[in-house]
Design brief:
The complex is a heterodimer.
Chain A lengths: L5 H17 L4 H17 L4 H25 L5 H37 L18 H16 L9 H9 L12 H4 L11 H33 L7 H32 L17 H7 L2 H12 L9 H18 L4 H19 L20 H22 L3 H13 L9 H20 L15 H17 L13
Helix pairs in contact in A: 2-6, 3-4, 3-5, 3-6, 4-5, 8-9, 8-16, 8-17, 9-14, 9-15, 11-12, 12-13, 13-14, 14-15
Chain B lengths: L1 H24 L9 H11 L7 E4 L2 H4 L4 H8 L3 E3 L8 H11 L5 E4 L17 H8 L9 H23 L49 H16 L3 E4 L4 E2 H20 L12 E2 L13 H16 L4
Parallel strand pairs in B: 1-2, 1-3, 3-4, 5-6
Helix pairs in contact in B: 4-10, 5-8, 6-7
Classes of the chains: A mainly alpha, B alpha/beta.
């Protein structure tokens, strides 16, 4: 079920009313209700996916219990603890690896042997990638790792644990929640908070605007161009590259906003996943603001265990290169994603080596002023251009197509007559609106706070207008880009 | 909680009111392509019409036949109800079932993907346009079609808004670039593009996954065929048309679909390959034939139909 669908528009209010009016008095039943509706939500994609997520959940649940039991033994059970953790990691990654990467590795294997004139014909399988598998696998893995590290007590409440892994607002595209943040929220009675619910609705509305109005409109232009690169002129290609940057941002951050906002309606607090990344002043800041939950996961569970930046510059360099590669590969079974990760590593590593990767940490652009300085604007522009170039690699179906796109920019005629002018005209209105709103709220915990607007009737009018614009631009069946990961 | 629900209802009501007002007040494009849905429906709904040979399908049917030649060859009245696959295969089948009469010969030439598991069964946003223009079809809607209808309302109102904002221009037919309801002739064939040449570059992509046959829909088609035959009509299935490159990429899937229909007892009258024509004969998509292509397809269809029609 897509967030931007009639089905979800019917699903959400029904679930909301049942949650607060029927199941409010019994926490256990309320959590069980969340499990049921989350499984319905997920099962509507394909009921077979439910078996996988249930298996992942059970595996991680029992790994936590077994780790704790090993710990309670007289000898401390250090080896057993590690063994149970490794078994759970292997099981989860094996499932993820099979569904996501089996055919890729088979094809690479075949291509490698073909280089030596050894031709093989192994079977590739018609494997359907379960929606959200990368997200919930990482989420459940973080639980068993945190239990092992004693950051969280293992739970015996299987219903709460199932609810934690399958929680429908963030199930299919994040944020990838930590058990230390989300799981305890299932143990506590939730009370309806009017202010949080209003913020939640605002976030849902803003997320829908970014997805339906910005991302889906950009997609009309971008898909047309990418479908026929050779037939486009330079200006069209450049515009498509820029618009894809806004498409993927609108799509993914829009989803996250809807997820976080929806969770707030049910009394849950999820972590922020995007923090105005296109206002970053360098690439290191960009990576602290883009897909925050995933990047933090890689830092906490791969970078730091590898030694992080504690063991000298070169190990730091190696570890950074590793996580950028893995981050790229996480996005999909395609060399374009790996190259995209390495491309970003190329820009990040010099900052790391010069000790400048934390220059802008903890601050936001134009911290104490209304407008950015010229220097900051140039930094933002440079970082944005770096990101746009990376997105070209990300968007391409293969390296050859990425190369075709880049070379066509420089070899096609620079005719200032881009295609789809009506689509562009709309975007010239909507994208600045998004940027202005996010600029105004750059110091806040979320965008579209309406903090400066105090008159009730103005607020209501703006809500009506934004809902109207969003529904006006609604197109059925536009999936979220990150569902494919 | 009451305050929250109350305010939410007020805001959503205002939004719905705005849409209802726009939807009621603004005019639909008087030359919009979907206006032809009304013409075609009225033609087959006529209570006193005589028996006809009726071609049924999406735009590949609208853009793919010359019904005058067919009528002259077969000695029957022929009418082309083809319009747009986005109406949904269920709607297309339901409408012909509803309006079939004794003596009709109905040629179902649905796009092959209609018989596979996809979202086309209940239509796309274009179904909303059709239903708003000819509301009687709402009586035959299932839940899925109602969801499609509601989901298509924003695009419907958006098209009305843009039409109004553009000054409700009445573009002379010779200057029309897109699709226009005036492009249909008296037989229901779309002919506006005949002198515009063929320049299609679209090719269906090769599918890496085996096609999933929609057995439920095939059973539904069988049921509707039985209803039509109970009224005295005869029903035959013809394959759709596809450009050669697309056919090369999707042949395995198409063969699977043909086999499925055969197994279900409603086989095509002929092989798909008979209606696969060179890429150069297609107008703007891999299914829309130009003038020459539609003649070739018509003649081949006539030869096939002669074997079953007296």
């Amino acid at each position: 079920m897509l967030f931007n669908s009639i089905e979800f528009a019917l699903f959400l209010p029904i679930v909301f009313l049942l949650y607060w009016f029927v199941f409010k008095k019994n926490l256990g039943l309320q959590n069980l209700f969340l499990v049921v509706v989350s499984y319905i939500f997920y099962g509507l994609w394909d009921w077979r996916f439910l078996i996988l997520i249930a298996f992942t959940t059970v595996s991680s649940y029992f790994s936590g219990i077994l780790i704790e039991r090993a710990r309670m033994r007289e000898d401390g059970g250090a080896v057993s603890q590690k063994l149970y953790l490794i078994i759970n990691i292997v099981i989860n990654l094996a499932i993820l690896g099979f569904f996501k990467y089996y055919n890729f590795f088979v094809e690479q294997f075949v291509d490698l042997f073909a280089l030596f004139n050894i031709y093989m014909h192994p079977r590739t399988l018609s494997i359907i990638l379960p929606v959200g598998i990368s997200f919930y696998t990482f989420q459940s893995l973080s639980y068993s790792i945190d239990v092992y590290r004693r950051k969280i007590e293992p739970t015996s409440d299987i219903v709460s644990f199932f609810a934690f892994v399958s929680f429908f607002p963030q199930l299919v595209a994040g944020p990838i929640e930590r058990a230390t943040n989300l799981l305890p929220q299932f143990y506590k009675t939730r009370k309806f908070d009017y202010n949080e619910a209003v913020i939640g609705c605002r976030m849902i509305l803003w997320g829908m605007f970014k997805k339906v109005v910005i991302a889906d409109t950009c997609a009309l232009y971008v898909d047309e161009v990418w479908g026929n690169i050779a037939g486009q002129n330079s200006s069209t290609l450049l515009i498509a590259a820029i618009l894809f940057a806004f498409q993927i941002y609108g799509d993914f951050s829009g989803y996250s906003d809807i997820a976080i906002g929806t969770a707030k309606l049910f009394g849950f607090s999820l972590m922020r996943n995007f923090n105005i990344p296109y206002f970053s002043r360098d690439i290191a800041e960009f990576w602290r603001r883009w897909h925050i939950s995933l990047n933090r996961w890689f830092v906490d569970y791969i970078y730091i265990p590898l030694g992080g930046s504690r063991e000298g510059k070169w190990k730091s360099f190696r570890n950074t290169l590793i996580i950028f590669s893995i981050c790229g590969f996480w996005h999909g079974a395609n060399w374009t994603f790996v190259f995209w990760g390495l491309y970003h590593a190329l820009w990040f590593l010099p900052l790391l080596l010069m000790g400048k990767n934390t220059t802008n940490k903890g601050t936001v652009v134009a911290e104490n002023t209304k407008i950015a300085s010229v220097n900051e604007l140039l930094q933002i522009l440079a970082t944005f251009i770096i990101a746009v170039i990376g997105w070209i690699i990300f968007r391409a179906e293969n390296i050859g197509q990425a190369w075709e796109f880049f070379s066509s920019i420089f070899t096609s005629s620079i005719v200032l007559e881009p295609i789809e002018l009506s689509t562009l005209a709309q975007l010239l209105l909507y994208i600045p609106i998004m940027l202005v709103v996010e600029w105004i709220d750059r110091r806040e915990n979320y965008s579209f706070t309406m903090n400066g607007i105090h008159k009730q009737w103005i607020r209501m009018s703006l809500y009506v207008l934004l809902i109207f614009i969003t529904i006006f631009n609604f197109r059925q069946g536009q999936a979220f880009i990150y569902f494919q990961f | 909680m009451k305050k929250f629900i109350g305010k939410t209802i007020i805001i959503l009501s205002l939004v719905i009111l705005l849409f209802v007002v726009l939807g009621l007040v603004l005019p639909y494009n008087k030359n919009g392509y979907m206006r032809a849905f009304v013409t075609k429906e009225c033609k087959i709904e006529e209570p006193n019409r005589g028996p006809m040979l009726i071609l049924v399908g999406g735009s590949s049917v609208a853009f793919g036949f010359n019904c005058k030649i067919m009528s002259d060859s077969l000695g029957r009245d022929v009418y082309n109800t083809g319009l747009h696959a986005g109406l949904g295969s269920k709607c297309i089948i339901d409408e012909i079932t509803q309006n079939a009469k004794d003596g009709d010969i109905i040629i179902l030439a649905l796009e092959e993907f209609s018989y596979t598991k996809n979202k086309i069964r209940n239509g796309e946003s274009i179904l909303t346009d059709a239903a708003m223009l000819h509301p009687v079809i709402l009586n035959r809607f299932c839940l899925g079609q109602w969801l499609t209808f509601v989901g298509g309302l924003p695009q419907y109102i958006k098209s009305k808004t843009f039409y109004t904002l553009s000054g409700m221009k009445d573009t002379p037919i010779e200057n029309v670039e897109g699709y226009d309801c005036r492009g249909f002739n008296e037989y229901g064939d779309y002919t506006l593009h005949y002198n515009k040449g063929c320049h299609n570059t679209k090719i269906s992509e090769r599918s890496t996954l085996k096609v999933e046959i929609d057995w439920d829909f095939i059973e539904y088609v069988k049921t509707q065929i039985s209803l039509m035959e109970a009224k005295g009509a005869k029903v035959y299935l013809l394959p759709t048309t596809l450009n050669q490159s697309s056919y090369n990429n999707t042949k395995e899937n198409i063969d699977d679909i043909s086999l499925a229909l055969k197994q279900a007892g409603i086989p095509y009258l002929c092989e798909q390959s008979l209606f696969v024509l060179p890429d150069s004969l297609y107008y703007d998509t891999q299914r829309h034939l130009g003038y020459e292509g539609s003649l070739i397809r018509t003649r081949r269809a006539i030869e096939v139909l002669k074997t079953v029609i007296n």
